[in-house]
Amino acid sequence: MRKHWRLIVLAGLAVGTGLMFAYCTGVIRPPRRMFHDNFGPVGFEVVSDWKPNPPLADAHGQWLWVDMTDNILAVHATGTAESGRSKAMHGGRDWAKFRFGSAWDDERDNQYVTIPRQPDTLFVILPDGRWKGFALDTDQAAQFYRRGAEDGMPDVLGGARALLVADERAKFEEFLAGYVPPQPPGRDKE
User: Fold this and answer.
1) pLDDT for position 190
2) In 3D, which of 79, 134, 82 has the Cα closest to residue 111?
3) Quick one: which of 24, 94, 96, 138 is 20 to 30 A from 67 by CA?
4) 189 lies in a domain?
5) DSSP states of 116-176 as a string?
6) Are residues 93 and 160 in the same domain?
């Protein structure tokens, strides 16, 4: 009887070690979070994990996030031309939270808006927390993001507008009625 227990314990240790090795090397991966397309070591960590895609930002405080696997774009109009964002986005399996308010991690401005995982969608998030999704064609998100990363993007919302078909563009314009992007620092208001 004692020999059987010893075999069971050794088998359990072997299986546990094998699973831990498979997880650490990336053979077994945790579920992919929204806006995280690459898997590998994050920073100086030994264990691999899903890495968030870096956002693109324009001088008007409009940030562009991409989920290439699900063909999702999120334009986060922050309402401020500040150049940094503290804890700007947190992606989950079925949702993503975007921080609005000031750019820095201040508890009084620590407000978030949550959007669902919905493939083939352009989400626009306004500074007051309102958001809306618009239909995208296949592979538009990755193409738009890569073009912006290569060439720069002076106006994220303006570029995103051009992706939409006529019906969706009309809904887009209606949703943005009244929103005025902030002017970049050092630029006179026109």
Assistant:
1) 47
2) 79
3) 24
4) no
5) E--SSEEEEE-TTS-EEEEE--TTHHHHHHHHHHHH--S-HHHHHHTTS-HHHHHHHHHHH
6) yes
